[in-house]
UniProtKB/TrEMBL annotation:
Annotated metabolic or biological route of this protein: Carbohydrate degradation; pentose phosphate pathway; D-ribulose 5-phosphate from D-glucose 6-phosphate (oxidative stage): step 2/3
Domain of life per record: Bacteria
Alphabetic keyword roster: Hydrolase
Gene Ontology terms: biological process: carbohydrate metabolic process; pentose-phosphate shunt
Cited function: Hydrolysis of 6-phosphogluconolactone to 6-phosphogluconate.
Gene source species: Deinococcus metallilatus
Keyword Hydrolase recorded: yes
Top-level EC class: hydrolase
Reactions catalysed, as given in the entry: 6-phospho-D-glucono-1,5-lactone + H2O = 6-phospho-D-gluconate + H(+)
Name by which UniProt lists this protein: 6-phosphogluconolactonase
């Protein structure tokens, strides 16, 4: 399920509109929209697009995070802070319905256990990005959390020399939907290999995702 848009802005707008639709559907069907936001820089455009959308049932939206760095909520590296600054302070989601991962907590394993305990039975949508090494959430190639069987894992990432909190693949694949927001030419080659079933990229283990792509990231796919 590949959706390709001309620019990163158009991709973000489309993902924001899909978010609004999914939220309305979930709230009318189940009374709440359980969504996990992702980190990195790509979602920033989507968060900004979301702010301006009408008819989003924000009072029934429950916000989670699919991963977090081992930092506090005020750190410029915090995925929570990105969502807080770019979206959550601009829309009326009740504070009690915003659940950040405690990246600053030590040991990180305690934060992973605590977060797993507060997750809803099933998420409606998990928003994900993809790194240019094919990682998604904080499931990096060659790291232990790739095999984790719980819902949330503390994951040591040698190449970054840091610990991360991350959803596991069982958690990601148990959600109703998985959306992968990938833009920029820098992701194009890995994306082409993933789509062709080549390489052994963690993102390939995300089951039947909806891909929101811009033309630059999707360029090699057009040559098929
Ligand atoms: C993180 C993200 C990560 C991100 C990719 C892509 O904590 O870094 O959750 O999985 O989605 O690294 O990041 P960009 O959007 O910055 O390219």
């Amino acid at each position: 399920n590949l959706r390709v848009f001309p620019t990163p802005e158009a991709t973000a707008q489309a993902a924001a509109e899909a978010f609004a639709r999914a939220a309305r559907e979930a709230v009318s069907a189940r009374g709440a929209f359980q969504v996990a936001l992702s980190g990195g820089s790509t979602p920033k455009l989507m968060y900004r697009a979301l702010r301006g959308l009408p008819d989003v049932p924000w009072s029934a939206v429950h916000v989670y995070f699919s991963d977090e760095r081992s930092v506090g909520p005020d750190s410029p590296d915090s995925n929570y802070r990105l969502a807080h600054d770019e979206l959550l302070t601009h829309v009326p989601v009740p504070e009690a319905q915003i659940h950040r991962m405690e990246g600053e907590r030590r040991p990180l394993e305690d934060a992973a256990r605590a977060y797993a305990a507060l997750l809803p039975e099933r998420l409606d949508v998990v928003l994900l990005g993809m790194g240019d090494d094919g990682h998604t959430a904080s499931l990096f190639p060659g790291t232990e959390a790739l095999q984790a069987t719980g819902r949330v894992a503390a994951n040591w990432v040698p190449k970054l020399n840091t610990g991360r909190l991350t959803f596991t693949f069982p958690e990601i694949n148990a959600a109703r939907e998985r959306w992968l927001l990938v833009t920029g030419a820098g992701k194009a080659e890995v994306l082409r290999e993933v789509q062709a079933g080549e390489g052994d990229y963690p993102v390939a283990r995300v089951q039947d995702p909806v891909w929101f792509l811009d033309a630059a990231a999707a360029e090699p796919l057009r040559r098929v």
